[in-house]
Design brief:
mainly alpha, 2 domains
């Protein structure tokens, strides 16, 4: 955090590092996580370009996604839904960020007891994004959602269809080239 010299970088460190760590520690750290959420939002608001979408590295949509996922870990599905919807609204359909936000929203719906809505959201991702373009992080989210829906024991036709679609996803093919991004990925 001491090297985070701008509000954007501080928001990024809070959302990428501190918040997920606190959320994974569980509910006994909920008040600390809520404090970090507030700090991250304050830092993003303080950044003069904080609402500019799609900036390399971090933007408002991603901040909302991290808050949604932390809220799920903390057992606050209503807050998760709110932030997943905000993240989804701040991205373009079919983009990886849209898929991630939609699947976070699906997870919040599943946790909230709306299995059919959760499955429908996941189907919308699979319908919008070609299987060979679906990132590994979205595949992980899909598998987690599928497992959660299966555990409920109330899986309807949409959830059963989702399970089949998730199982039949093709393996990711190596890109065979280094990306233009600084980290090569």
């Amino acid at each position: 955090m001491e090297y985070a010299d701008t509000p954007l970088r501080r928001a990024q460190v809070l959302a990428w590092a501190e918040l997920p760590a606190l959320a994974r520690l569980g509910g006994q750290h909920r008040s600390d996580a809520v404090r970090v959420i507030g700090q991250a939002q304050d830092q993003m608001t303080a950044d003069p370009d904080g609402s500019q979408p799609g900036r390399f590295g971090f933007d408002t949509a991603e901040l909302h996604l991290h808050i949604a996922e932390a809220s799920l870990l903390l057992g606050i599905p209503g807050q998760a839904r709110e932030h997943a919807e905000a993240s989804r609204a701040a991205t373009r359909t079919r983009r990886p960020s849209w898929a991630a936000a939609t699947l976070a929203l699906a997870q919040a719906e599943a946790v909230g007891g709306s299995a059919s809505d959760a499955a429908a959201l996941a189907h919308s991702v699979l319908d919008a994004v070609p299987a060979d373009s679906l990132r590994e992080t979205s595949r992980v989210r899909l598998r987690r959602l599928d497992q959660d829906l299966a555990r409920t024991g109330t899986a309807g036709a949409e959830a059963l269809s989702l399970a089949e679609r998730v199982r039949s996803l093709p393996q990711l093919a190596p890109v065979g080239r280094i990306s233009d991004e600084p980290n090569g990925h």
